[in-house]
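Recall that a protein's primary structure is simply its ordered list of amino acids. Everything else, from secondary elements to tertiary packing, is in principle encoded there. The following example makes that idea concrete.
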Amino acid sequence: MKMNKTHDILQKLIKLMGFDDFSVSFDAENNRFSVFINDSDFFPPKADPPRAEKNFLPDFTSNLDHAIRLIARKAEEEGAVVDVNNYRKEREDLILELARAAARKVVADKQEMALPAMNAYERRLIHLELASRPDIKTESAGEGRDRYVMIRPI
């Protein structure tokens, strides 16, 4: 298993954050750490809407991901993506489904469609997902945080 130093540091870091019930694994094929933290006070169940505003999983995942990339670089290991409680995987699946549904609608209505603003990684996922479709064209538009993907019929 590569990423041994980073794996060990990630485990220590999560422990120092005060979490006791967690697991860390590394998928070399996808270059991704999967972290599962079982703590309902910090990560409320998705089916619990009143506590949804307490769910800071997106920010927590992003910040931990950034820290681990820096740690990996310092340890002279290749950077990896961190996915906490499958947040990133579920978000990617949602974005890909949105892209496919929007493409079907664009083709059916023969009208272009703008998707919501997304970060560069999410926009790239959409471009790659729809690149093989000869009946549509995708391009990014907008500036900064307001950058989004346009899907146009050909």
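The longest helix spans residues 87-109. The mean pLDDT is 84.
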